[in-house]
Amino acid sequence: MNYFKNKTLLITGGTGSFGGALLEKFYTENTPIKEIRIFSRDEKKQDDLRKKHINFKGKLKFIIGDVRDTNSVNDAVNGSDFIFHAAALKQVPSCEFYPMESIKTNIIGTNNVITSAISNKVKKVIVLSTDKAVYPINSMGMSKALMEKIAISKSLLNQNKTNICVTRYGNVMGSRGSVIPLMIEQIKNKKPITITDKDMTRFLMTLDDAMNLVFFAFKNGKNGQTFVKKTNSALIIEVAKALKIIFKVKKHPIKIIGVRHGEKMHETLMGAEERSKSKENKEFFILNPDLRDLNYNKFYNKGKIGKKLNNYSSDSTTLLSSNEITKILIKLDFVKKNL
Fold it and tell me: Which of 90, 132, 229, 241 is an active site residue?
């Protein structure tokens, strides 16, 4: 990855699953990067990450701070060449109970990071988003949708200065708060596996899939573009069945508990309206920004006829069987560690 040679990279929310996987990739590939800055508010996770990567030979810098605070953001951004913006409140219940907190972090925090990036002439910012931002029904998704809007609007108002791109992906298997570690814990503790609805579907992505999307956007992204990774999906109940196969507990009970507050039956990575305007290749959708200027008459009097396509959602893509899911899960480190 020579485009990182002698460059400084800032990862906001860098102690999360994405940041940890990224550090592993940089270390194992001996990336010739100048400095990696991990910016987060959790000193315990920073200390854990510091001890884990003690052999990074001085390239790793940990910065305590919060994206909500402009001063700490400016201190972290100053001197950075690139930013991967992963800091967010991601738990649906937390954002439902405290929606103003999701606004402060996901919306205002993002605005702080991008504004600082532009002021400090950062070359490129990659903003990490989620499928829940599409047709959102919960506070987390709504705040992430507005996060995307802020990123795109900033890219339009500051053309040819800081390159700003958005990446959007679905559930990352094994990430903090995701369903598969919960199911493993239920199996190990001999508790029923809880399923909200037998017809519920979700996209399934590995951390490698997520990083491939981010690096594709980093390498190829033009200002204001949004990138979506094509991926398979599965019925959640089939995921549970796959784990029962892996852990050899075929008779382990599955309990249907009903759809929870703020939860969708199916997730959408790209809405029909977006998809009609996007380009695609074998692996990705690429959505270009609306480049109209601030002439409001164009929004009222001019439109564009596009092709009519369906949503790209978890119930309309290839649904994996429990055996296919088993083959994927058995290769994942967090599953191996629990066997």
Answer: 132
